[in-house]
């Protein structure tokens, strides 16, 4: 099966070492398919002839960046950038990559990368070099820590079985609620408002929470395996702390009682 190549060309890769800090690399941007994930492949620049079709020998990959792991893509000013080039950052969940492209091409590279890393977002507005271009769907707040879709695996708790949850899903933390989406269609299956979540926790391999009776899923414990449990926990914790507090002049409703319980107990899980 032929790969779905969306863009290819020369970029400069910033190296954190002495001597020559920018290395010219040949980059290939591939879209997600049934057989592979969306990714940016980095080759030694001498192999560019192969990618342009003039060589029959396929080189070994120099490096592969899985765009599913991408958190943020942003154009940045750098003093030592190669001549007539502009720099941009590509941040994943565990590493920050710095590239440079010719000024006439940098916005097109960022747009193409964002389309694969953040499908469904709008890229019509220009990218500013004075601040990070953080995708709206991947940002908890305009100036807060960036977030993304988390690939998770549902654990068969009583509540999960009742809701027919099994296998892989996408869990997306937003400012007021958690979304659970189908991994293929991205259709929203459940929405859990933070004010109705009683408590939540995490360990090295999972993220879990207790939904209150007002949640559309009904009450119960939900657990999802993920290697990003700590990050999920910190995002949800920050979101709950920033929820508007109920007015003390009004009677406390069951909704507000569950919201208060969430605030009090989120740090104890």
Compute the number of helices.
5
Count of distinct strands: 14
Proper CATH architecture of the largest domain: Roll
Strand percentage: 25-35%
> What would you give as the CATH superfamily of the largest domain?
Pleckstrin-homology domain (PH domain)/Phosphotyrosine-binding domain (PTB)
Largest sheet: 7 strands, antiparallel
Q: How confident is the prediction overall: mean pLDDT?
A: 77
| Count of the separate structural domains | 2
Strand order of the largest sheet: 4-3-2-1-7-6-5
Task: Indicate the percent of residues in helices.
Answer: 10-25%
Uncertain segments: 125-147, 248-269
Query: What is the overall silhouette?
Result: elongated
Structure class: alpha+beta
Overview of the structural elements:
The radius of gyration is 22 Å and the shape is elongated. It folds into 2 domains: 134 residues, PH-domain like (Roll), CATH 2.30.29; 116 residues, Pleckstrin-homology domain (PH domain)/Phosphotyrosine-binding domain (PTB) (PH-domain like, Roll). It starts with a strand and ends with a helix. With 269 residues, the protein is of the alpha+beta class. The relative contact order is 0.10. The chain has 5 helices and 14 strands. Strands 4-3-2-1-7-6-5 form a 7-stranded antiparallel β-sheet, covered by helices on one side. Strands 11-10-9-8-14-13-12 form a 7-stranded antiparallel β-sheet. It comes from Carassius auratus.
Q: In a nutshell, what does this entry contain?
A:
It comes from Carassius auratus. The chain is of the alpha+beta class and 269 residues long. 17% of the residues lie in helices and 35% in strands.
